[in-house]
Design brief:
This protein is mainly beta and 883 residues long. The protein has 4 domains: 33-163, Sandwich (Jelly Rolls); 179-309, Galactose-binding domain-like (Jelly Rolls), CATH 2.60.120; 332-495, Sandwich (Jelly Rolls), CATH 2.60.120; 569-877, Single-stranded right-handed beta-helix, Pectin lyase-like (Pectate Lyase C-like, 3 Solenoid), CATH 2.160.20.10. 2% of the residues lie in helices and 43% in strands. Helix 2 links the parallel strand 32 (507-509) and strand 33 (543-546). The longest helix is centred in the middle third of the chain and has 12 residues, at 524-535. It is globular. The relative contact order is 0.06.
Length: 883
């Protein structure tokens, strides 16, 4: 089959035998403007002469004389006119009956462009074509084909067709590198070739097995209005009959473009654009029923366009109204791939180690060249801006520093500093030994990278009003521009910055104890002296005040905070710390973290920016750790620590709220070691290196705790939310997105050896988008909600789990996934909605035992099936489901 297909193409000069051939630009339609110039009417020199002693030519003849006696001299020069300067395609029609490829040289306006190879044709009466991209000036130009002294010549030239610059289809190709499948194909010519961005590779349907169906998954519903189909530019003319369909669930398809016959012609770059009335679709399908040039449908590129990828600025992604789901934060979020840009969209991808897989929405924009930018229009007034980005690591794994230029209203504001020293880990869990996880060595085994993004936050020089255009642009003047291959922009957040807070009357300022803002000198002693002043005040003072500025904690020793061996700011019971606001007061440095020794404190309104460069489970610095009994931790911003919050030692009645946890190496937040009666609400967690939010009943049961109205994005390992044992806990109204690897959106069960799991666990009204992942260690797929009863052995007892009212959208694999033994417990799944699952709506693995009740659940779009129970030892009951 493969051999026949290749022979067929060579006879028509279809193989791209010249490595120098250049892919033509995207044609907007099959009627792109072109002009054919007959060779016999061109300017002939050096022995080139008109002839008519073979058949199959156009016009009055062709040009011969490219013989060895005229080597170094024979030439045909076409005088052409270009309406505007730009890139055009020149298609030469030639005959080469010698039996082997021959070369001539291409000149434009007197300058040699390259040597081109002309494949052998079947005879001197058979004509082939060869396409090159040429740059022309506006007005008059010359294009010459010459038998240079370095060429092999011995060809005839019939004509040259010049194609005008084509108008690209609007927006971004939504199908580039997307998931794609086919119902059949010729071996080696698979569906993935049609979306790889390489026009020299192609898909071909199985011979005489029509319809050949090619389906691309755009990852989420998009408004689409056209598809562009390409074949290699050098292939001969052919027609293909096909239709275009769209679907939201890969099950029910509607017709976007009815079956029609389309001509692919090398004079128009073998490109066809099919437009149709705009429609919403996640899946776009081609159905081929005929091909005049082969026995199956063919496509080297299958591109999809629409307003879903418009370069106009969309409304920002704003938080849902309070009382629905997710955190209500003060910023607007702009996804880079949906903005006006001149970069390249990467993704979508779910492949571990792929830069797009760790991006919000699994897409981002990569800027490589000077002048490339991302820009958008402010929907609301803003003075604070946060950029989530990635720049490459260096060869030693220590990271590089760079910058990107920020403009407001067309005026340069400042260069924003970027770094990769807080990103890019490699290796395996124990590569470095001890309790250090992963490695900063790019040559570690495996060298698949993870934790590839960081964030930069900037206070602008003024508040800019709604309607201001904000632009981020790479400039050659940026720091280390030449050694920074690219800047990948994932998202941008903008917000108004409220006025700075004032010091409460019963607080002491660290300035009074020797701290100096923004000088880079160590302020540890000043902090500790202020803390001691509060402790020794007999109740006159309640806490320590951090004024506006950056204060450094760099001097100390490594060690674990829980045993007092590491430098931290240790807070005894009743010693609170407040700042002027997260945009004003910052504690930074190698030991920027607080350890709570007795609770009864308030920590609020400042930023913690540590310097941890890798996950060190023993001596890494936690943002806030310890016993938070009767404590309020609110409006904090934590980054570059081991964990954000780690409440332990049987904390009781703590509240963590309105905080941002970004780019930490392990858990975003963990309620540990018997934490009870505590609430975690209205927080944003992004880019944690382990579970975003976790309750871990280690030794003692976590009891009566609540995770509510939080947004957890892109944990680079494990779950967005995880419940490990415990009693009477709740997971309510959270927004969870973009799990990366080894985890789910919400996992519950008996992992990590809890003493038991009992009472009632409530998982209700959460929204999970693009959750679930491949577990690379286990080797199988994890669903968006994961019932994981590993090592249960009776630990789950007298337990009821109620999973209800959750919305699961675009799960990577199954919507709900159940595994491992869980006999004798009650699990109820009620009124959950699963839309566009990657595989099954609900999947019960063969290792599961026990039972669950499913009532009034809805699955819309599950290509593998709505429900599958593969365990003979797992019983399902219930009614009202749509499977």
């Amino acid at each position: 089959m493969l051999k026949k297909a290749m022979v067929r193409k060579s006879l028509a000069s279809l193989l791209l035998l010249s490595l120098a051939a250049v892919q033509a630009p995207l044609a907007a339609s099959v009627s792109a403007a072109s002009q054919t110039y007959e060779a016999e009417a061109a300017s002939l020199a050096g022995g080139a002469a008109a002839a008519a002693d073979h058949t199959g030519y156009t016009g009055t003849g062709f040009v011969g004389g490219y013989t060895d006696s005229n080597k170094g001299n024979a030439s045909t020069t076409f005088s052409v006119s270009a309406s505007s300067a730009g890139s055009y395609t020149a298609v030469i029609k030639y005959a080469n009956g010698t039996g082997s490829a021959k070369t001539v040289s291409l000149y434009v306006n007197g300058a040699k462009v390259k040597q081109i190879s002309l494949a052998a044709t079947a005879s001197w009466d058979t004509w082939g074509s060869e396409t090159e991209t040429v740059s022309l000036n506006a007005g008059s130009n010359t294009i010459m084909y010459k038998y240079d002294s370095s060429d092999s010549g011995n060809v005839n030239i019939d004509s040259m067709t010049l194609n005008a610059p084509s108008t690209p289809a609007a927006g971004t190709n939504l199908a580039l590198n997307a998931a794609v499948s086919s119902n059949n194909n010729v071996s080696g010519f698979t569906a993935s070739n049609a979306v790889d961005g390489n026009a020299s590779t192609y898909y071909e349907g199985a011979a005489n097995a029509y319809p050949n169906v090619l389906t691309v998954d755009l990852g989420s519903a998009q408004n689409v209005n056209s598809v562009v189909l390409k074949l290699p530019a050098g292939w001969g003319t052919r027609t293909q009959t096909l239709s275009v369909q769209g679907s939201s669930d890969n099950s029910a398809y509607s017709t976007l473009a009815a079956s029609a016959t389309y001509t692919f012609n090398p004079t128009t770059n073998n490109t066809v654009t099919i437009t149709f009335t705009e429609a919403s679709a996640r899946y776009v399908r081609l159905s081929f029923t005929a091909n005049s040039g082969a026995t199956g449908g063919q496509a080297s590129e299958f591109e999809v366009y629409g307003t879903g990828a418009s370069t106009t600025t969309p409304p920002p992604v704003t938080p849902p109204p309070a009382g629905t789901y997710g955190a209500t934060m003060p910023y607007d979020t702009y996804e880079a791939e949906s903005l006006t840009h001149t970069g390249t969209v990467i993704g979508p991808s779910t492949s571990f180690g792929n830069l797009a897989a760790e991006a919000s929405g699994r897409k981002a924009v990569q800027l490589t060249s000077a002048g490339q930018y991302v820009q958008f229009t402010l929907a609301k007034a803003a003075k604070g801006i946060t950029i989530r980005y990635s720049i490459p690591d260096n060869a030693s794994g220590t990271g590089i520093d760079s910058a990107i230029s920020l403009y407001a209203g067309g005026t340069f504001v400042k260069d924003v500093n970027l770094t990769s020293k807080y990103s890019w880990n490699y290796g395996a869990w124990g590569t470095e030994g001890g309790e250090i996880r992963w490695s900063n060595n790019p040559n570690a085994t495996p060298n698949t990278p993870l934790h590839n993004y960081d964030e930069a936050s900037v206070v602008l020089n003024q508040e800019y009003p709604a309607g201001t255009v904000i632009k981020l642009q790479r400039n050659a003047s940026n720091l280390n521009f030449s050694s920074t291959a690219n800047v990948t922009v994932d998202l941008i957040e903008t917000e108004a910055i409220p006025a700075a807070l004032s010091m409460p009357s019963n607080y002491v300022s660290i300035l009074n104890y020797g701290a100096v803002a923004n000088d880079g000198a160590d302020d540890t002693t000043a902090f500790n002296n202020a803390i001691n002043a509060v402790k020794n005040s007999g109740g006159a003072y309640k806490g320590v005040w951090i004024p506006s500025g950056n204060f450094t904690l760099n001097n100390g020793t490594k060690g674990a905070g829980y045993n007092g061996t590491g430098t931290r700011l240790y807070l005894d019971s009743g010693v609170s710390v407040k700042g002027a606001g997260i945009w004003y007061s910052t504690v930074s440095g190698n030991y920027a973290g607080f350890y709570l020794r007795g609770g009864n404190v308030t920590l609020s309104d400042f930023k913690i920016s540590a310097n941890d460069l890798i996950r060190d489970d023993y001596s890494g610095v936690s943002g806030v750790e310890g016993n938070g009994t009767n404590s309020t931790l609110t409006n904090l911003w934590i980054e570059h620590t081991k964990v954000g919050f780690w409440l332990t030692n049987q904390t009781n009645n703590a509240t963590i709220s309105n905080s941002r946890i970004r780019n930490v190496w392990a858990d975003g937040l963990n309620l540990h070691y018997g934490t009870t009666n505590s609430t975690v609400t209205n927080n944003s967690v992004r880019n944690s290196g382990d579970d975003g939010l976790a309750m871990w009943s280690d030794t003692y049961l976590d009891t009566n705790n609540t995770f509510s109205y939080n947004t957890v994005q892109i944990p680079t390992l494990a779950n967005n939310i995880a419940i490990y044992g415990g009693k009477d806990n709740k997971v309510l109204n959270n927004l969870l997105t973009d799990t990366v690897v080894n985890g789910s959106g919400i996992s519950y069960g008996t992992n990590f050896n809890p003493p038991s799991m009992t009472g009632t666990l409530t998982v209700q009204n959460n929204v999970l988008i693009r959750c679930g992942s491949l577990h690379k260690d286990y080797g199988y797929q994890i669903g968006a909600i994961w019932a994981y009863w590993v090592n249960n052995n009776g630990k789950a007892q007298n337990l009821t789990v109620n999973v209800s009212g959750n919305t699961i959208q675009d799960s990577t694999y199954s919507g709900i996934f159940i595994e491992e033994p869980a006999p004798g417990i009650t699990v109820n799944y009620a009124s959950n909605t699963i839309t566009n699952a990657g595989t099954y709506g609900v999947y019960v693995r063969g290792s599961a035992t026990g039972s669950s009740t499913f009532t009034n659940n809805t699955v819309n779009g599950a290509p593998s099936g709505k429900f599958l129970n593969t365990s003979p030892s797992f019983t399902v009951s219930g009614s009202g489901n749509n499977w």
